[in-house]
Design a protein that fits this description.
It is a single chain. With 350 residues, this protein is mainly beta. It has one domain: YVTN repeat-like/Quinoprotein amine dehydrogenase (Methylamine Dehydrogenase, Chain H). It is 6% helix and 45% strand. It is built from one helix and 28 strands. The strands form seven sheets. A four-stranded antiparallel beta sheet has the order 1-28-27-26, with no helix packed on it. A four-stranded antiparallel beta sheet has the order 2-3-4-5, with no helix packed on it. It has a four-stranded antiparallel beta sheet with strand order 6-7-8-9, with no helix packed on it. A hairpin with a 5-residue loop joins β10 and β11. The longest helix has 21 residues. The radius of gyration is 20 Å and the shape is globular.
């Protein structure tokens, strides 16, 4: 009888979860801007929420004034040779932007649109983070390292690696995502070894390691630097307090604890491709590869709402959310999708 009751309870939970998923539907945005005709590989919002930098496919990257709906600057890494921008980023203070094409990064002055420097590396760049004022960059490279580079001195300061021991591999693992802490003292890396790792940028010492259930594809510090955000492919996204390194919350839309055996069911899994934070540090917004946008309470990971961004063309594949953020006043949410559309949504909260 106990076994039957357990199965009945699981069935009720599955039905409840299915109902929650069913309630996630496409919503029309309050406003929409077409930022790319061919689509983009990467996008990033400026810290002041005024601009979005879009890495167009086979076109110069474009810095858009969001509400004005106009291009502030068009940037390409080589003069008269527009390539595909594979990654973009802003420094934490918003003064510098980065565009990446294959193995080349160019840093740009956001105030006047002029290039600051061009950096070329011997291997492909997977991800880039920029320190305040653009004095340092942190790069995830295709050679399975992350490099902390002094732009002014033109030299490598630290090299970080993910050994394969967490996944019982004898070789070091690819690093997919990097971030620099708001105070510029720490680095965060996420890799194929299913770990996110925290590093001291001065000494190169590893400070913390968090194991996940799959490849870690996205890592981020919140703007205040008091917690980190880590997300693994087809696994749950997690928040970790600093400096204690203790888990704050799992961002989860299902009624079942994802750390139990039932949490392995695919219906409870999600991949996060973008994250943004409210200015008051109370809320988080996430973007996903299934058109979905979700909002959360930062202190405990409570899910507030989820909805789907409409496709540009109904018969084309789903939309990958490349960047999400809150407006400066916290009343709206901006999103940028791989289909070239930027959208604005109302943010309703208690």
């Amino acid at each position: 009888m106990a076994g039957i009751n357990h199965i009945k309870r699981l069935s009720q939970l599955l039905l409840t979860s299915a109902a929650l998923v069913a309630c996630t539907s496409e919503q029309p945005p309050l406003n929409e801007w077409q930022h790319s005709h061919l689509g983009s590989y990467a996008a990033a919002f400026s810290p002041d929420k005024r601009y979005v930098l879009v890495g167009d496919t086979d076109m110069p990257a474009k810095l858009w004034d969001i509400e004005a709906g106009k291009i502030q600057y068009s940037w390409q890494n080589l003069p008269n040779e527009a390539g595909t921008t594979t990654d973009v980023a802003f420094s934490g203070d918003g003064s510098v932007a980065a565009t990446c094409e294959s193995n080349t990064v160019v840093l740009w002055n956001v105030a006047d649109g002029k290039p600051i420097t061009r950096l070329q590396f011997p291997v492909t760049i997977k991800d880039v983070a920029v320190a305040d004022r653009g004095e340092y960059v942190l790069l995830a490279l295709q050679d399975r390292t992350a490099v902390y580079f002094d732009v002014i001195a033109n030299r490598v300061m630290q090299i970080f690696e993910h050994d394969g021991s967490p996944v019982n591999s004898p070789i070091k693992q690819l690093i997919n995502s990097v971030a620099i802490s708001p105070d510029g003292s720490k680095a965060l890396t996420g890799g194929d070894d299913q770990t996110a790792r925290l590093w001291d940028l001065s000494s190169g010492q590893q400070l913390q390691q968090w194991k996940h259930g799959s490849v870690v594809s996205l890592v981020s510090f919140n703007p205040q630097g008091d917690y980190v955000f880590t997300s693994a492919g087809n696994d749950q996204t997690r928040l970790w307090a600093l400096p204690s390194a203790k888990q704050i919350a799992v961002l989860n839309t299902s009624p079942i604890d994802v750390d139990t055996m039932w949490g392995d069911l695919p219906v409870f899994k999600t991949t996060t491709t973008a994250v943004g934070y409210s200015a008051d540090n109370r809320y988080i917004v996430t973007g996903h590869p299934n058109q979905e946008i979700c909002t959360w309470r930062a202190k405990d990971g409570e899910n507030l709402d989820c909805w789907q961004s409409p496709r540009r063309e109904s018969l084309k594949p789903g939309v990958v959310l490349q960047a999400v953020t809150f407006s400066a006043d916290g009343k709206m949410i901006y999103s940028e999708s791989g289909n070239g559309l930027a959208q604005k949504w109302p943010f309703n909260h208690d």
